[in-house]
Design goal:
The chain is of the alpha/beta class and about 350 residues long. It is built from 13 helices and 13 strands. Helix 3 packs across helix 4. The structure holds coenzyme A (COA).
């Protein structure tokens, strides 16, 4: 679905934050768990290590730290948030929503809070929703979060999936801005016919939890990787082209592309089709693996804290995920340089940017 609403005001990112758990699971660790090798994983995916949440840690705990960092960067109090939009595939519980749990932990008393289930494309969907609610005046201050604890739904006996996924959270504060600045375009798509390429078969209304579903590992991710690979490259290329068209821009006018970190080969193939030089495309999959809806906001926060974005830069975000869902958005960056510089200088900011997980 692509449509450019006639918005009265624009919406822009005014602060970012991220958090990843401390525990690192390396390819060498995985070699001891399944029949795989560090060489195979690096060559086929670009991943060297990923983060794994501690026992007792839940998605809302990761989201809380990322959100607090984003609010601090934006200079916003939790009590000022109008809406919390939380993208996840791994909420703490099915009920209540993870967004409501985060609301309680933040003390964001006046916020309306809800989850978005769009798998790895969740953050892009969330940017579209945030732009809509801000543009129409329904909200001024939106906290958008992407968080995953995929380690909780990964079968560490299945080498097809366990090498890929990791845990983490990223957040962004989105606020009104002048029309023509900030989020310029959003394009989002789905194709439910492709639903079984990536699924968790049990635990919902179709196959409620039972001894049998546990025995059959039905609560873990099942993936048809090769088929996903092809549709991911096509979907990411097409949606970023559409978002650029809608914004009146071309691939050459992009200063930075922040793609969902699913597989380095998917990112490289998409980049080559678009003709964007490698140095403009953010890659951190080596350190975090695929963190689904968290991968784009984690990457964004690292980029912001490293001072790689300045006002006026054109930034493309693009993702593909289970559902199938895919989409892209193009933003004209507005966070003033002094804010970015202050954030970089803040104690602990550099450690956070390098995934120290504190
Ligand atoms: C999963 C993925 C890395 C596999 O890479 P691939 O090059 O497509 O590899 P294939 O699936 O063709 O498998 C090649 C061989 O490696 C084997 N293999 C699979 N996982 C392996 C692992 N961890 N270690 C070693 N060998 C492995 C396969 O069994 C297969 O062996 P076979 O030829 O004897 O059958 C790749 O398809 C991918 O990234 N797909 C997209 C996944 C994705 O992005 N999912 C999330 C959506 S956002």
């Amino acid at each position: 679905m692509t449509r450019q609403p006639d918005l009265v005001r624009g919406a822009t990112i005014t602060g970012t934050g991220m958090y990843v758990p401390e525990r690192v699971l390396t390819n060498r660790d995985l070699e001891r768990m399944v029949e795989t090798s560090d060489e195979w994983i690096r060559e086929r995916t670009g991943i060297a290590e990923r983060r794994i949440g501690a026992p007792g840690q839940a998605s809302s705990d990761l989201a809380l730290i990322a959100s607090q960092r984003a609010l601090e960067a934006a200079g916003l109090e939790a009590g000022e948030i109008d809406q919390i939009i939380l993208a996840t595939t791994t909420p703490d519980r099915i009920l209540p929503s993870c967004a409501c749990t985060l609301q309680a932990k933040l003390g964001a008393k006046r916020a309306a809070a809800y989850d978005v289930f769009a798998a790895c494309t969740g953050f892009i969907y969330g940017m579209g929703i945030a732009r809509g609610v801000i543009g129409t005046g329904l909200a001024d201050n939106v906290l958008l979060v992407g968080v995953e604890m995929l380690s909780r739904i990964v079968d560490y006996g299945d080498r097809n999936t366990c090498v890929l996924f990791g845990d983490g959270a990223g957040a962004a504060v989105i606020r009104p801005c002048a029309p023509g600045d900030g989020i310029l375009s959003v394009t989002i798509h789905s194709d439910g016919v492709l639903g079984d390429l990536l699924e968790v078969p049990a635990g919902g209304s179709l196959q409620p939890a039972s001894e049998q579903t546990v025995r059959e590992h039905g609560h873990f991710i099942k993936m048809r990787g090769r088929e996903l690979f092809k549709v991911a490259v096509r979907g990411m290329e097409e949606s970023l082209r559409t978002a650029l068209d809608d914004a009146g821009l071309t691939p050459e006018s992009l200063d930075l592309v922040i793609p969902h970190q699913a597989n380095q080969r998917i990112i490289d193939a998409t980049r080559e089709r678009l003709g964007v030089p490698a140095e403009k495309v953010i890659l951190n999959i080596e350190r975090y693996g695929n963190t689904s809806s968290a991968s784009i906001p984690i990457s964004l926060d690292e980029v912001v804290r490293a001072g790689r974005l300045k006002p006026g830069d054109n930034v493309g975000f693009v993702a593909f995920g289970g559902g199938a869902t895919w989409g892209a958005t193009v933003s004209r960056w507005t966070m003033p340089a002094p804010v970015a510089a202050k954030v970089v200088a803040a104690p602990g900011a550099v450690a956070a940017a390098h995934g120290a997980g504190s």
